[in-house]
User: What shape does this take?
Amino acid sequence: MENLKEKLKNFLEAKLIEEIAREGKFMSFKEGDVIIDYNKNIKFMPLILSGTIRVMRKDEEDREILLYYLSSNESCAMAYTCCMEARKSEIKAIAEDNVTLVAIPHEKLDEWLTKYPSWKSYIFNSFTQRFNELLRSLESIAFHKLDQRLIKYLKNKAKVTGKKAIQLSHNQIAEEMGTSRVVISRLLKQLENEKKLILYRNEIKLLSDF
Amino acid sequence: MENLKEKLKNFLEAKLIEEIAREGKFMSFKEGDVIIDYNKNIKFMPLILSGTIRVMRKDEEDREILLYYLSSNESCAMAYTCCMEARKSEIKAIAEDNVTLVAIPHEKLDEWLTKYPSWKSYIFNSFTQRFNELLRSLESIAFHKLDQRLIKYLKNKAKVTGKKAIQLSHNQIAEEMGTSRVVISRLLKQLENEKKLILYRNEIKLLSDF
DNA sequence: GGAGTTTTGTGACTTTTGTCATAGTATAAA
DNA sequence: TTTATACTATGACAAAAGTCACAAAACTCC
Assistant: This one.
C-alpha cells in the first residue's frame, strides 16, 4: 500500500491514489501466468506496479503478434477501450516475470476521467505511448531486415527483463517475430560468430559488445 | 452549418454540436493541400466533414510511412495528443481530395471531455479505430506478401476515394508501401495480365473482378 | 516539332527470407 | 539406462523482393 503511493505520487494526485487503493484490487502473477485471455470479458484495467507484461494479439488467421511490453506504472490502452465498451478481449496478456498490479474496476475508469485531471492525462499518455510503440514496430518491420529486427528484439527483451541472459527458445522468438525457427537459428548463430552473444539451450547470453 | 448538425447529430449531443459550430473554425482544402505538416505547432484538432485525408509519418531515417486515411466524421488521434501536450507535429496530413473540416481549438478539447459524455466516447472511439487500423497494417506487413498487400492497398484506395480509377504513379505507390518502383511496376503488370486492372500513365483502372 | 522530363516496361542478377530434410544434442520421463 | 521429446545446427534448394541498367513511351514546355 505504501509502495503504491510511492510509485504513483509523481504523476497522480493524492486523492486519486487513495481511491485507487480503496477501489482497486491488488493482484499478483507468476512468470508465464495468463493475466488476460482472448474472448474473455475484461472487467478491469491493469495498472502495473512491478514486473513486466507481454501483450499479444491474434489476427483473423490466428497468427499471434506481439503488441508491446508493459512495465511498472504503465497501463494497457487496449484493455481500457475494451473495458469501456464492455467488449470481449481481443488481446492476451502474459506475465513475463513476477507481476504485481492494481486492477481498476471499469466503472471507475470513466468516473475518474472527469473527476481527476491527472487520471485523464495518465490515460491519454498511456494511449500515446502504445501508439508510438506500435508505430516503431511498424517501421521496424517495414524497413529493417530480419537481422536488424532480431537485434532490436533481443535488446528490447534484455531491457524489459533487466537481464543479459534471455530465456527463450529459438522457436518462441521466431513466433513472436512472425518467422520460422530455422531462420532465427541461422541469424543467432551468425551473431554468435560475431561474438555478440553466446547460445545455450533455451538461453541466449548477450555479450558486452552486443 | 446545417450540414454540420446533420452529420454529427447521430453521435454527438445537440449542445455540443452548437458549441462546435460556435468555437470551431470551418476550413476547406483542395486535393493535395498540406493540412498539417511536420514540426509545426498543432493548435487544433480536425474533425472531418467531407473528403478524405491521408496521414503520414516520418521515421528517424526520414522514410515516410502511411498511417491511415481519415474520412467523414473521423478525427485524428495523433493530432489530439499533439494538441493536448502542445507538441510539434510528428505527422503530416494531406488532402486526398477536396476536404471540409471543423478545426477544434485545443483549449476546448480538454474542456469538453469532462463536460460532454458523447465527446468523451467520440474521442475514445477515434483512438480505438486508429489503433485497430495500425494493427491491421502491422499484420498486413508482417504476414502478407507484397502482391497481397498491393491488392489491399488498391482496394482501400478505391474505397477511400470512391473511385475505380486510381490516379497515382507507380513510384508514389512504392513510396507509400515502402518498396521500390520496379517491384510495384512488375506486380501491377502481373495484375493487368490477370485482367484485374488496366494500366495507364498516372492512372490505374480497377476492373470488375478485382 | 524538338528537347527535356517523367513515367513505365523488362531482362539479368543479387540478396534476403522461407522451406525441407536430416542429424545431433540436451533434457525429461519411464 | 533407455526412450521419448524438445531444441539446435546446417546444407541444399526455392521463392520473394530488391537492385541495376537500359529502352521506350507519354507528357511538358518552349
